[in-house]
Structures are given as structure tokens and as C-alpha cells.
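C-alpha cells for chain A. Residues wanted.
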């Protein structure tokens, strides 16, 4: 999927901090979170919302009112005349939303698209499905979050099983997973230097209204400190496996977004911050029960659509719920592990699903800016052995 006239104005991309589930945002609806973070981000960046022709909303966990999600978020932001689609594709939601916005911008002659993603993994809903054939009409129930984490209904296996199967295919060891986890944690720590100067450029605080006070969350919460000794002391999540609680991500809550428009409009909105060109997106599905392999396949599709190769890339950012993901990607595409995720990644700061990829794209853009521009790739896996990738160029 190639794009020819889809651009992000330099300042107009952001993410909230990610808050470990059942933490400070456990009772905050993701719809409320989406509205508050997006409004504050746009206001801080001086963006005139009358420019918005469509709002694309990405989310994966239903909240009260989700039936009306995209138009409801737009209306609550004061965009009563704006509508748009709501997209849910598990952890690939952000790339799917950006691709939708890029295509809409091109097809609509350069109209400006606002992309908003938000999820609250905390306190996931319990769904009740009526069954007239059940004994006494007893219903079927599903915990949207916990049951989905527990097993893919097609394979009958958990996502953790896909990591272990991929590790076995690749011959990856427990030691490799622990060492990569420590590398990713060290990279995240580097992004916190100088009082989090880099993060403050793109992290938009979350405001939580409590009974007697208002709390502002301006940094990630729930990060687990890592040492090699500590990682090696952890027990495998599965007997005989290579993945531990340290080398896999944790669920979280958060929101993130950006603006997509035409080249000329992006340049007028960018002021002196340059623009980001969306070049291509790729979606792929790995073999059954091998989810961590899918990001490499999606990346190859995105690169091929844009007529580029992995040798053209300056930076790669991944959604890596398991350390195994990056080990497989590095081997499959012959890309150095050290040039991936320079500002952190979901393995360390958590995974709220819908906005996870969006934060990855935001950090990819900032990492490229720090290098003076260039070509970068975001890629990540998603439930159902899926992968999604986005190729961008930063002026």
C-alpha cells in the first residue's frame, strides 16, 4: 500500500504516557482519555481544529458509549460536523488507522485527517451473550481482555505460545532474550536523560480527576527496573521456555494521535519543524501460531511497496511484546539490534494495544529528527499472527 501525497506536519504527533494496568488510569474511560489528551495536544501545538475533515478513531477494548466511538469523540472535542470510522485490529490498530487516513487524504484531494487512538486495558468489560439453547437460557460470557490474552480461538494457544514456538524455530536462547531486554531497558533510560527532555517533546500529560484533587500524569508509570542478574533470576513463563515476565511486555492504558494531510498543507502547518512523508504501509500474516514472525513479513511488504530495501533504513522501531520479536526481525532482515528502538519500546513501557503502534511512530519520527532526518520503519505484531508496518521519511 503506497502513498504519494500523505504527510504529517512536524509538530502534530503525540502520545500520552503509558500507565501500567490497574494503576492511576484504571477507572478512566478510554473515550474520556482520548478526548482530553487529544484536545490538550492540539491546543498546545496551536492547531486549528476547523481544518479537520474526518476523525479516524482506533480502539480495541469496548467502553461505555463505544457504539458511537468516532463521532462521539469528535463531538466532545467540538467537532460536531465531523465523523469518521472506528477501527479495531488488535495491536495493528494504529498502522491501520494511519493507512486509512493517508488513503482518505489522497482520495479526498488533500483533506486533513485527525487520527486518535486510545485504549484502557484495565478493567476490561465482561460481555454476556444470550443463548436461548443454554440450560434455562443460561448465557455465554467472555472477559474481553483476559479471555483474549489467554488464547487465540483459532489456534487454541496463547500469544506467549507463539513467542516460544518462534524462539524454537529460530534457535533463540533464554540468555539472548535476557540480554536483549536489558539493551531495550538501557535505551529507554537514555531517553530519560536531561529530565526527560526528549520525551517532553511528544508526551502529552494525562489529567485524572480524583475526588478531592486533579492529578497530572506526565511520565510512564509501572516501568520495572532491569539488571542482567535480576532478569536471569526470573523463572520462565512456561516450563522450559525462554520467555520470562522480564522479557515480555505488560498491559497498559494510554492514548496517542497525529494529523495527516497533503504536502502543501503539512508544510504550512509545520512551521519550522519539517514534515513527515508517509511512504507505504504493509500488512501480513505469519504461519499459524507464529505471531512474532509477522512484523518482518509486514516490513518487507511496506519496503517493496515503496521500492526501498532494508539497507535504506536509518532507524527501525518495533512493537515487541516479546524479546523474541526483535531477535527474529533482526535475523530475518539482517538489521542490527542496536539500531532498533533508540528511545524505548513497548517491551519496556507497556502495551495499551490501540495506541501502542502510534507511540512507536511518534518515537520513530523523533529518533529520525535527532539524526537529521532520513528513512524509518515502524513494525509490530498483532493478535491472529498478524503484522503491520509503516514506512516514513523525515525531512
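Reply:
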Amino acid at each position: 500500500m503506497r502513498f504519494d501525497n500523505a504527510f504529517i506536519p512536524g509538530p502534530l504527533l503525540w502520545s500520552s504516557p503509558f500507565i501500567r494496568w490497574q494503576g492511576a488510569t484504571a477507572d478512566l474511560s478510554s473515550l474520556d482519555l482520548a478526548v482530553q489528551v487529544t484536545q490538550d495536544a492540539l491546543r498546545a501545538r496551536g492547531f486549528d481544529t476547523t481544518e479537520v475533515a474526518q476523525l479516524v478513531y482506533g480502539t480495541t477494548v469496548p467502553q461505555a458509549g463505544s457504539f458511537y466511538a468516532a463521532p462521539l469523540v469528535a463531538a466532545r472535542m467540538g467537532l460536531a460536523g465531523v465523523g469518521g470510522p472506528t477501527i479495531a485490529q488488535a495491536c495493528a490498530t494504529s498502522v491501520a488507522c494511519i493507512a486509512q487516513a493517508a488513503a482518505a487524504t489522497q482520495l479526498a484531494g488533500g483533506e486533513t485527517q485527525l487520527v486518535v487512538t486510545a485504549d484502557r486495558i484495565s478493567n476490561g468489560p465482561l460481555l454476556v451473550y444470550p443463548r436461548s439453547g443454554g440450560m434455562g437460557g443460561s448465557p455465554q460470557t467472555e472477559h474481553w481482555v483476559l479471555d483474549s490474552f489467554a488464547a487465540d480461538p483459532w489456534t487454541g494457544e496463547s500469544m506467549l505460545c507463539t513467542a516460544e514456538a518462534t524462539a524454537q524455530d529460530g534457535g533463540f536462547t533464554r540468555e539472548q532474550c535476557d540480554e536483549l531486554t536489558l539493551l531495550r531497558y538501557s535505551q529507554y533510560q537514555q531517553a530519560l536523560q536531561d529530565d526527560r527532555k526528549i520525551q517532553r517533546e511528544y508526551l502529552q500529560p494525562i489529567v485524572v480527576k480524583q475526588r478531592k484533587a486533579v492529578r497530572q500524569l506526565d511520565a510512564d508509570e509501572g516501568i520495572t527496573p532491569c539488571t542482567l542478574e535480576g532478569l536471569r533470576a526470573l523463572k520462565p513463563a512456561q516450563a522450559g521456555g525462554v520467555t520470562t515476565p522480564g522479557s515480555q511486555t505488560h498491559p497498559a492504558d494510554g492514548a496517542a494521535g497525529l494529523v495527516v494531510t497533503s504536502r502543501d498543507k503539512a508544510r504550512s502547518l509545520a512551521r519550522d519543524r519539517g514534515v513527515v512523508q508517509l511512504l507505504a504501509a504493509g500488512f501480513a500474516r505469519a504461519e499459524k501460531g507464529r505471531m512474532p514472525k509477522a512484523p518482518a513479513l509486514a516490513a518487507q511488504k511496506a519496503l517493496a511497496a515503496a521500492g526501498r530495501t532494508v539497507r535504506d533504513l536509518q532507524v527501525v522501531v518495533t512493537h515487541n511484546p516479546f524479546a523474541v520479536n526483535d531477535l527474529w526481525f533482526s535475523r530475518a532482515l539482517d538489521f542490527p539490534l542496536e539500531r532498533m528502538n533508540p528511545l524505548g519500546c513497548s517491551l519496556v513501557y507497556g502495551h495499551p494495544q490501540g495506541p501502542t503502534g502510534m507511540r512507536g511512530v511518534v518515537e520513530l519520527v523523533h529518533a529520525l529528527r535527532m539524526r537529521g532526518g532520513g528513512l524509518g520503519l515502524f513494525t509490530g505484531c498483532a493478535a491472529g499472527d498478524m503484522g503491520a508496518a509503516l514506512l516514513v521519511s523525515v525531512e
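The radius of gyration is 20 Å. The mean pLDDT is 96.
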